[in-house]
Amino acid sequence: MDIRLTEIRKHFGVVKANDGISLVVPRGTIQGILGENGAGKSTLMKIISGFQPADSGTISLDGQPVRFRSPADAIRHGVGMLHQDPLDFPPLRVIDNLLIGAPGRIRPRRSEAAAAITELANTFGLTIEPTAEVGSLTVGERQQLELVRLLWLGADVLILDEPTTGISETQRKQLFATLRSLAAGGKTVIFVSHKLDEVQELCTQVAVLRQGRLVGQASRPFDVRQLVGLMFEHEVASEARISCVPGESVLSLTDAGAEHGRIRFEGLDLNLRAGETIGLAGMEGSGQRLLLRACAGLAPTFEGRIALDRSDATGKNYLAFKKMGVAYVPASRLEEGLVPGMSLTDHFLLTDHERGFFVNRREGRRLAQDRISDFNIRGRPEDRIDALSGGNQQRALLALLRPGAKLILLEHPTRGLDLESVIYLWTKLKARCNQGAAIMFASSDLEEILRYSDRILVFFAGRVTGPLDATSTTVDQLGRLIGGAPASPPSDTESHV
Amino acid sequence: MDATTLLIGLAGVLASSAPIVVAVIGETLTERAGVINLSINGTLLLSAMGSFAVAVTTGSVVLGFLGGAAIGAAIALVLAFGSITLRQSQVAIGFVLALFCRDLSYFLGNSYMGQKGPRLSVHPIPLLEDIPVLGTLLFRHDILTYLSFILIFAASWWIFRTRQGLMVRAVGERAEAAFARGARVNLTRYVYTALGGALVGVAGPMFSLSVKAGWKGTISGLDGLGWIVLAIVIFGAWSPVRGALGAYLFGLLQWLSVLLQPHLQQIPSQVLQVAPFPLMILTLLLVNIGNAEWVERVLAALPAPSRRLATRVLRSLRVVSPSSLGVPFQRD
Amino acid sequence: MSRPGLSESRPRIAAINAGMQMGALALAFLLTTAILLFAGAPPLAAYREIAAGAVGSFDSFSNVLVAWVPLLLAAAGVLVTFAAGLWNIGVEGQIVMGAVFTTWVLRLLQESGVPPAVAIIVAMLAGMIGGGLWAALAGVLRTFGGVNEIFGGLGLNFVATALTLWLIFGPWKRPGVGSMSGTEPFPEEFGLPTVAGSRLSLWSLGLGIFAVIIIYVLLERTHFGLRLRAVGLNHKAAFLLGVPTWQYGLVAFVFCGGLAGLAGGVQVTGVYHRLIPSISSGYGFLGLMIAMLILYRAVWLAPVALFFAAVNIGSIQLPIVLKLDSTLSGVLQGTLVLLVLLVEGARQRYLKKLRAKVPPAPGTGHSPRPPAAAALPASGAVIIDGSGED
Fold it and tell me: In chain C, positions 215-234, which contact chain A (CB-CB < 8 Å)?
């Protein structure tokens, strides 16, 4: 089936997630979709697969315009999506998983279905065990299952969202072989990824999204440099970098590793000194958050040794880390960082070292007002935190940091903020550096990483590259590393310091 | 005690447990869709009273049962509306309804206290009733007890062997994924809540028009049974057959406590009567223990072979509860 | 940045809120009246009787105050657990265990020559400990066993009741034959002193009011209360901000259990002077209902609890005077709570609809990450929202 997108638009509040995207994907093509976080890839895929309606624009299949009201509607038209985290049912058996939602009569013919599916799987070299419990399968196997299910339901257009995260090399090769034979048989495959080498290996053509727009297309053979250039913006002349004189070691990791579901890293050695800033680059879900959490004492699967300020902190819990001077600022503000329903004053009272049993509201309000002015938060002390805009919530989060924090861990600190806020917040953070704090932050904004870090770690599929020296790394090199391609010299260093 | 008396006693257990079985199956269906109906205690009482009132007024047992079912469904729909549409806590609404319906049943039932109403009659099945042992046990009951036997297998078949049953399990398990597969999550929850409520509404008259005929207000002995039903649903691991077995076990314990009272002075009768609850707590412990963080840490510290064994044991226990239970569903 | 399409303002929101809450109360009365009519009873006469039965005489009003005390204590206790986001349905069992412990200690001390006043105080403390322990059990099951506190609490309620029955018919039974009337009554000096001619003890009244004040101060004016409320509103964020969440949860349970246990102790020493099977008389559940009705705002606790107590006591005479069952009180209380809950849900939905945003016109709005060169103004619009969360 051909699929044609015309002027797809979708907004969330004032943010334009998709801003007039038009694309033609002929049948038999493996279409790659490249873009960094926030470019609009997942929104577009959700629209094509029926999870969300577009605000405007049309989708046509083989020339016929269609409108999907739900994912089930989409699959009925032959469009199926394979999510990064498969939407399956872990406690149920494979055969039941496959049958849920499949059309049929009142009594599902399990044996018939099992036979049909097993045969279908075999044609692609995949094996399915109908009585196994889905929860016991590996991610790669669950993915295969989902793929077979979509094909069994008659999908002609298959959308795969970052399918190779967390699967083995063998499974990846198998997946690619399957996708190629599907395309050869006339199916259309849309392959969303940030991994340049895979896109290069698999896709017939590529579309690059950036900030909600389609900024470029290319067909085989691909020029990686050109793709990177389209994905990431080029450097703009930056202002003077703020650097602090490094002091004593604040954080030291030896042979560190952790895992969480499909995400993991291992064998990391790192030494971070007071006044230093280290930026964690890479696509989301590549391990940056895991590292940040491990350094905050929030990763129960941590292996290796971690020392704060020269004293061993391995095995201690979050509250102990906090006492030792670690401050952790999560990315999801309202889910993890702030308490919706409480006011700014309440938050400052919560985090301030309590003096005594009773709350001194006046003191609290004064403190809040101080911090509000200090961080330029648009809000009054008694305003509820969930009534503030996202930008101001982020400022509040930073304002809640304890003054004496020695290690500041930030997950996407300036996400969704306008430039002015970004600059302002970093001025404040760098002021902390001058006072002897060390900063580790993750960000999807390459410019932010390059401008504010002293050193950079790049995360890609469980591998950590670096630390790289920020002053001598270009956007292009960074972009390549994030995409998994080897950076052109000079930049690579060992992962020790 | 001789064999015949024993058999008759056991048959009595089957009959007196039948209402509990029906209520347990009803709530199992509701919870399978991901909704907890805490109002059962009140629903049982109100449907018992209401159906009795209808039967006395109309003289018809059938109308009585229909009335009971309607009452049960109506209460369940209030719960569904308040929690699914108005997004209030299922626990809060269910709890209030439990107390409210109980008091309402006593209040409205006042004028029916002590009245004599129609009763279900016993219908032994010819030929089958003469089978030794099984005949006495299974084939000399009233029609609703027979229906309760059938219901066990019908519900089990429905949930585990049909397409729609599979979809309900999907909704209760992971509503978001079920939606992606085409389920109409909130509608399904409405339907199964009402259905479960209707079944509980049938269990009520199974008391007042049969087993504990009449309406005796606060001494009817029905108060508290609704909570026990909730316990049995969990103990039965959300499976109709196991839930029914739990209900029979409960009935058996009740019977034994009466029987053995004069002989076992030391073991208080109350112990047997509250037995479902420690069992329920134990079941919940086993089901959830794998999730606790301290358990994760302990597991991480174990050597690999024992860790694998422990994980497997924990995982096999974990499968049972519908994970979406009590969690509201929101379409993006 | 102004937002087109926004039709709300602070006063309007406040008016909507007040209107809907009043509406809920009105609907509740309408519903109860309808039920009365359905039952063939005269509504106005019934309401009049309840009022008369509650405040008609010194005797009845003193009984209302007597019933007020355990409600104050139980509702105050569950406010603490609600603040922490917990459903402490086990509060009934905690009242019962408090009564059991109080009875136990009083039985031990009554022969020992300890002055009665001391014995009573120690026994009441024991009651608080008993309730606290029982609550801690539910808390531990939840924190370490993953057992939802609703089912754990329910189960423990039944176990507590069974324990009481066993004690009354077993080890503590009256000489001769155990009976439903409870254990052997304590001698008069081992009870709380009462106001002449009534069962009201000013001590217990004082305890009840004191508890409400303490809870209000605790929740609203201390750091403990602030952190507890943070746990209830968002336990993940509270943890990251430094609150040891599971400890706070357990403390909340123990606190509530202590107050509930005290209520049980008051019932034993002040009202019944012995342990009876239904020593808690549903006060625990009523406490939960009160807390839900006041939407968890401590300020309204005392008056609403008084109202509930009045309705309870006022309905006692109904069977005699109007041939209506006294459970009319439960009906009235139930409709109030139910309708307040439902209207609250409707109100939140309505306000959410009012806040629906309008899509940006072409040429306005911005892309997910603004281009480096442009400097957009800080998006600092504060959403005016006077009311409910969502």
Answer: 221-227, 229-230, 233-234
Report if residue C380 sits inside a domain. Answer: no
Distance CA B244, CA B237 (A): 11
> CA–CA separation, B209 vs C222, rounded Å?
57
Name the residue among C125, C74, C76 with its Cα closest to residue C269: C125
> Residue A432: is its pLDDT beyond 50?
yes
pLDDT band at B265 (very low <50, low <70, confident <90, very high): low
Radius of gyration, CA atoms only, chain C: 25
Cα–Cα distance measured from residue C134 to residue C100, given in angstroms and rounded to the nearest whole number: 11
Q: Which residue has the tokens 């009520």?
A: B204
Higher per-residue pLDDT: B122 or C374: B122
Closest-CA distance of chain B to residue C188, Å: 31
Examine residue C131 and state whether it is found in any structural domain, yes or no.
yes
Domain presence at residue C346: no
CATH class of B3-317: mainly alpha
Phi, psi of A479 (to 5 degrees): -60, -40
C87 contact residues in B (CB cutoff 8 A): 91
Best mutation target, B111, B228, B277, to test chain C (most C CBs within 10 A)? B277
Its ipTM equals 0.86
d(CA B97, CA C331): 10
C250 within some domain? yes
Residue B328 has what pLDDT? 66
Residues of the domain holding C87: 67-301
Beta-bridge partners for A160: A82, A191
Q: What is the CA C216 to chain-centroid distance, rounded?
A: 13
Nearest to C234 by CA among A339, B93, A162, B53: A339
Which pair of tokens denotes residue B263? 């002989």
Instruction: List the strands of the sheet with A249-260, edge to edge.
Output: A263-273, A249-260, A303-308, A311-312
**pLDDT surpasses 80 at B264:** no
C104-146: per-residue pLDDT in tens? Answer: 999 998 888 888 889 999 999 999 999 999 999 999 998 888 7
pTM score, two decimals? 0.86
Question: Based on the structure, what is the number of domains in chain C?
Answer: 1
pLDDT digits (tens, 9 = 90+) for C247-283: 999 999 999 999 999 999 999 998 898 899 888 889 9
The strand pair at A79-82 and A157-161 is best described as parallel
Compute the C-alpha angle B142/B145/B150, nearest 5°: 130
Give the DSSP letter string of B152-169: HHHHHHHHHHSHHHHHHH
Shortest Cα–Cα distance, C388 to chain A (Å):
9
For C233, the closest chain A residue by CA position comes to A339
